[in-house]
Structure prediction request, 186 residues.
Amino acid sequence: MYPSQNDAHTYTTDGHPGPVPVSGIPNPSPTQPYPHPQAPYISSGVRVRVPGKWSTGLCHCCDDVANCFVTCFCPCITFGQIAEIVSKGSSPCAASGALYGLLAMTGFACLYSCSFRSTMRAQYDLAESPCVDCLVHFFCEACALCQEYRELQERGFDMGIGWESNMDRQKRGITVAPMVASAMRR
Prediction:
């Protein structure tokens, strides 16, 4: 009923002379077969950085449980670490964290922290999402700090050692690989 491979017709479907491969797709150059399209392959556990996008979502706080815990109970520590890296060492961790703690008692810490989010977005060309920086910090302060912390980690910063030590590591060629969750758990 159906022709076999050996019964290939000498005309293509559009009437031009030439063999028709079994696939039914005519080959314009019989000496070179079509290259097989390969699907883009991304191995599990590897994150691809898309320009303009945050590496993690605002509500992915539990991607780093330890940081989430510290940020929920003492956000001034996380903020101080972020501020030191974002300000490139001009705002020391302890000073920024202490000022944040004092402002937290008045309820204005979100205004201080949103300015660092804006600076960070400008440095790394990140989108202002899901809304304006000050609203993100006003309504989701802990989530915003966790997201910023994770973003800096994804960009190779070791948040526990500060700006100067990170720069020393980069000068020596030592980089910290981004933390990636394992695809398989046992």
